[in-house]
Write a structure and sequence with these properties.
mainly alpha
Length: 180
């Protein structure tokens, strides 16, 4: 039998949003991947696991981040142009070696768009027919490499530039293409 106070307590607990279930497969892809790689780099570099040291390393890592990783850094406030600052939501749990999935779950509660970030599908440059790609996709390949194609007006110009740079940025793909 429920007492009045027990019923009130049960009702109150049912109204409190429960802890989110564990992340679904593939959810928070950028968060989990970036923080996982970052955590491993901290261990490899022998960084002291204090919040301050982790924060310095995180800001340094985010300075070099590109694409979706940079966007993630922006969302948590680890970039110079970020509007919010939630770095402590990352550094504090990392200082006591909390699993990155749990950190991402908590970040998702604070800002859902963090978990909406997804990496772009990667092309297999060793097998893809560059002639069948759109110019937008060719530009994206160059952008990922940190390169531009000055004076490129035709699709063939972009293809030439990519094949020219492929040995530098994708040596395995370049080798596979010459073996064909």
């Amino acid at each position: 039998m429920w007492s009045v106070s027990g019923f009130s307590m049960a009702l109150a607990l049912s109204l409190v949003p429960g802890t989110a279930a564990a992340l679904k497969e593939g959810e928070c892809e950028v968060c989990v991947t970036f923080l996982g790689t970052f955590y491993e780099s901290l261990k490899e570099d022998g960084v002291k696991f204090s919040s301050d040291d982790i924060e310095k390393a995180l800001v340094k890592s985010c300075r070099d981040a590109k694409g979706k990783d940079n966007r993630f850094c922006y969302y948590i406030g680890a970039t110079s142009d970020a509007a919010t600052k939630m770095i402590n939501e990352v550094t504090k749990p990392l200082s006591y070696h909390a699993p990155v999935e749990k950190i991402c779950e908590k970040l998702k509660k604070k800002d859902a768009q963090i978990c909406e970030l997804k990496y772009d599908k990667q092309l297999d440059l060793s097998t893809v027919d560059l002639k069948k790609l759109k110019v937008k996709d060719l530009r994206k390949i160059l952008e990922e490499w940190g390169e531009t194609c000055k004076g490129c007006a035709e699709k063939s110009d972009f293809i030439r530039k990519i094949t020219e740079l492929m040995p530098k940025y994708a040596p395995m793909a370049a080798k596979a293409r010459t073996d064909l």
